[in-house]
């Protein structure tokens, strides 16, 4: 399995020598600026070394076309080129959210376009095999129920998002995407939780769920109730102790209904995952 740089690897590539002690110095700003670039442009080495944004976009577009033509279209002998193109373009806009094959098929029919559920399921599997995306199931102890529910889809490199929507509109989803890919990199089984409320990422180790993570750009009064409710419901119903809320740059501990909730910057979590929350 070949993946883009992890954030640690990205810092090393940028010749930023990271250590926990560095976080308490003014040099912390170096890490934040590097994280901003990593979040927006992704971790492909060639992209990281490109001179400017135009060059980075051009390389990412080439990678996208290589995945489309060589890794999926030609390799699997797909004739419905338009369907694969629509699917990939849709995923560039809807990453870090649930993707329903049934809903997408209905959307195609509304526009008088053909595309079966079977073909769409096959294309998604091909895109996973080509390391363009990863998909997480909804948490359930029943394998059948997990299979029947929509999956949450993430791009294997956040740089691909530049080929879709605007960065400022997708910052929270970019953060979540980075977290999901890091868990994937660590070969941890990851799902999402949805009952009365939602929790972004549940990490299962062995046969039991052991971590619950909610991800948002910033926890503030307008979203605090929703984010905390989803996290607390997941932790209580699945009996999970470890986890918290990952944000762009908030670090503190809050006590809600007698439960301690830690807030941690995503960039710090990426560097110190084993020690976090």
Short summary:
The chain is α/β, with parallel strands linked by helices.
Question: From the helix content, strand content and strand pairing, which structural class follows?
Answer: alpha/beta
CATH topology name of the largest domain, in short, is Trna Endonuclease, Chain: A, domain 1
What percentage of residues falls in helices of 4 or more residues?
A: 40-55%
Query: Largest beta sheet, briefly?
Result: 9 strands, mixed
Please compute the radius of gyration using only Cα atoms. 19 Å
Looking across the biggest beta sheet, what order are the strands in? 1-3-2-4-5-6-7-9-8
CATH architecture of the largest domain: 3-Layer(aba) Sandwich
Q: What is the global morphology?
A: globular
Distance N to C terminus: 28 Å
Q: What ranges have pLDDT less than 50 throughout 5 or more consecutive residues?
A: none
Question: What is the mean pLDDT?
Answer: 91
Please count the helical segments. Answer: 11
Report the β-strand fraction as a percent range.
Answer: 15-25%
Total separate domains: 2
Number of strands: 9
SSE pattern, N- to C-terminal? HHHHHEHHEHEHEEEHEEEH
| CATH class bucket of the largest domain | Alpha Beta
Describe the structure.
By secondary structure, the chain is of the alpha/beta class. The protein has 2 domains: 77-165, Arc Repressor Mutant, subunit A, CATH 1.10.10.10; 173-277, Trna Endonuclease, Chain: A, domain 1 (3-Layer(aba) Sandwich). It is built from 11 helices and 9 strands. Strands 1-3-2-4-5-6-7-9-8 form a 9-stranded mixed β-sheet, sandwiched between helices. The mean pLDDT is 91.
